[in-house]
């Protein structure tokens, strides 16, 4: 199962499907694998419909498990990126990721991974809105305290630190573009 997180290919998808069908006791390994592997499956050209089917099967197994919800959110972020990269609208997929990660964060408020991913999906929602004529402020502003909580839970988490910096820089750019003083956001980005 360790190889699954490296996204080796279709054999892993078949293996994960087999785990779902035959050994629900190993579901935690599956959820950890799909959460970590989602992005690499997509990067390696694996059919995203298969990943969606696996995600849906996993959710049906244990929809109230915070580990499941967190990993579903991670897989949905990867799917959203795939859709975005292929010219499709990722917003419904990002909204599902946001919902699943928020639920996981409510169940386990100190889960740094779920908080980091929730802040990350809010960041990409903001970026997408900005690139498509929408208002990114709501998503970006919401991401700030969530990423700060992720950093409090795991102070050495490079992804959370980087995401928080990017969010503050994005907010500073928005302020500057609207004739506002961007210094507060720039200072927060450098803190």
Summarize the SSE layout with pairings.
Blueprint: H1 10-22, H2 27-43, H3 48-61, H4 66-85, H5 91-107, H6 112-131, H7 137-153, H8 158-177, H9 183-190
Helix pairs in contact: 1-3, 2-3, 2-4, 3-4, 4-5, 4-6, 5-6, 6-7, 6-8, 7-8, 8-9
Mind explaining what this structure looks like?
With 191 residues, the protein is an all-alpha fold. The protein contains nine helices and no strands. The radius of gyration is 17 Å and the shape is globular. It starts with 9 loop residues before the first helix and ends with a helix.
Contiguous low-pLDDT stretches (5 residues minimum) are 1-40
Residues in β-strands, percent: under 5%
State the helical fraction.
over 70%
Give the tally of β-strands: 0
Q: Categorize the overall geometry.
A: globular
**Which H/E pattern describes the elements?**
HHHHHHHHH
Number of helices: 9
Biggest sheet descriptor: none
Q: Could you write a compact summary of the structure shown?
A:
The chain has 191 residues and is mainly alpha-helical. The protein has helices spanning 10-22, 27-43, 48-61, 66-85, 91-107, 112-131, 137-153, 158-177, 183-190. Mean pLDDT is 76; it is low at 1-40.
What attributes does this structure have?
single chain, mainly alpha, 191 residues
